[in-house]
Amino acid sequence: MDTGSHLLFGATLAGLAFVFPAVSSDPQLAAAALTVSLVGSHAPDLDSVTRLFGNDVYLKLHRSYSHSVAAWPLWAVAIGSLAAWAWGAGEHWALLCGVALAAVVLHVAFDYTNAYGVQSLLPFNKEWHHLDALVLTDPFLVFIHAGAVMISLSNGLADPALPCGVAWAVSIVYIGWRALHHRLIVRRIRRRFRRWRAVHVLPGLWWYRWQYVVQTDTGHEMGEISGRRILPSESLPFGESHACIEATRNASSVRTLLGYAKRQHASWTSLPGGGYRVTWTDLRFWRPGKLPYRAEVWLDDQFNVRRECIGWHKKAWEAPYV
Fold first, then answer.
1. Listed residue (256, 254, 259) closest to 307, CA to CA
2. Does pTM surpass 0.85?
3. Fewer Cβ close by (within 10 Å): the C or N end of the chain?
4. Do the bridges between strand 229-237 and strand 264-270 make them parallel or antiparallel, or are there none, so unpaired?
5. How many domains would you assign to the chain?
């Protein structure tokens, strides 16, 4: 999820903490609970500091160790202890650590619902895990949780546990429904393409919109789903390998992409002044007519790497929403 959504969920989690009598009866402890909830809801994304070392390093480390199960208790203890000291609430240290832990775990859980996914089982397993059920900023969840915050503020925080609890209950049901809907869409695509080898379905911004990538024996089929209509868009046959493609496999940007790409695809072009440009992409993140997430490597005629880059080539409001 995006930063704004994570912080919004942190605010409603803090409201839910009012179910504890100690929190609801002590404004200072309530402020401490809000602090750890907001900080914990954002803490795993502090890996964004790796942008200082380049986009390649950031993409390699984002949603990895800082989101892993091994980091959860570390975040919780660090955030809870600092808040207990700052707010003079040492006797409620365990409660604050518990709220911080819940915030961190929920952050990772929401990221898991996205198509980009998380390496949540590091260092035990390097696999990327993703549910492919929600977009990066889900309008329905934002509406539900923003409504809970506004109701709580309009009541002067008299009983925020009720509206925030309702928001979380609705969210759980909603995410379950989206996950089930995704499975049904995947089943439809598999029936449509009988010779499928792999199927990926990513959610659109609206409930009835999805996009798919199907790997077959001969290549990849890409398209969209609108309601009950399956709308094929592009066919991408497997291309023949070339020496320039093989020469880029050890490039840093390519190794980063291949570290989590599920349906990688490479293409190349000869440059007018000599040399080659090789483009690698993860086809899951296609959009009509474009491959917005890619690693590009420029080579000379002897296949020496001259320049490379990796990243997104799209606006934040453009598909895919990951």
1. 254
2. yes
3. C
4. unpaired
5. 3
